[in-house]
Design goal:
Helix content: 40-55%
CATH class of the largest domain: Alpha Beta
Distance between the termini: 37 Å
InterPro entries: RgpF
Protein name: Rhamnan synthesis protein F family
Number of helices: 19
Organism: Pseudotabrizicola alkalilacus
Radius of gyration: 22 Å
Strand content: 15-25%
Amino acid sequence: MIPAWKVRREMLRFWRQITGLPGQIAAVPSKLMQRRQRATYDRDFDQLVQITTGDLAMGSKVAIFLLYQPKSVPRSVFLTLDYLISHGYAPLIVVNGGAAAQDVPALRRSAWLLVQRPNFGYDFGGYRDGLKVLRARGTDPDRLIVMNDSVWLPINGDPIRQLEQHLDTNDLDAAGLNQDEKVRYQPDGSVRFELRQIESYFYLFSAGFWKSDVFKQFWDQYRMSSDKKYTIKHGEIGFSKYMMDRGRRFSGLMRRSVFLDRIESCAPDFLHKTLTYAAYADAKYARERDELLASYDGSDAWRDAALSHIRANALRRPFNTSFCFAADQLFGTTYLKKNSQTYFHDMRAQYLRAVEDGGVTPPAPDILLEIKALVANHDPKTAERTL
């Protein structure tokens, strides 16, 4: 007999397929337009994309660094470039939408190549073009970083050194800062974690992998699009799935399951601080947090309740966004996301509180100023709404 939970799962899947049909039909004109845009873009690539030689020499390591800064390039971007260069990476800077004239000289000073392209295809469109330019130059770096400016990096620590060690020690094809895991709820109430995509704001690739036929095949067939959902599905998620389905080894420094394992051994006072600086996308969990803080007594019973709360939220939302203090203490804060969603804004506000209280080591002064400015200028009306 088929278990009831399987029947419910299949019925829900069928319902989603049926209710999604109107949206799929409505999207047909947009898909046709995107197809024409891709064809025109690839045909006119040499006219649309401007490639300028920078001041730095090509070395044994390259970092494709994608920027989207329609106003001006902030100081933190140059700090990231300096950090890449200090680890021996020659930056191939790709600017979606082009760079402001006043920023070009400074970008060239920090670049091996500067590639300015139309703002088409989001980050994976820029990644594709950066890889295309890299191949066309006939270069053969031993390490390749592909990243974008949607995060501040480094906040603290030395993430490149950590990632290079992680890549080599575990004989990986690709390493990242954070790797998503799909939560599978089991009939007995337990959960199982399935490795999914490395989050696309930072990849480190081994030489053997990025030079492989399977790597080239993915990018040759990838159809870039200015549809954000398409790019996430076929770019960020699709890239990792394509490679992992073919036996390639991907791993992130941080994962949900590792966070949950590590926090199980933490003391009540640590959990109290974790909740003090927590941010929530769901009002239910925010109310629970308030009740837990109000009832704090350091007992084992309180600790069990706090762990249950943290686990329930972390199974539903990004743990390092909800619990920035715990993530910092258990993994180190190597980066911070710039996402404009109110949930991420709340995380940054709590992170600043933790910095001011001395619970978290502050980042470089220029980065700290940018974080403070983003928090101060947050407007819920214009924030992204994807949760």
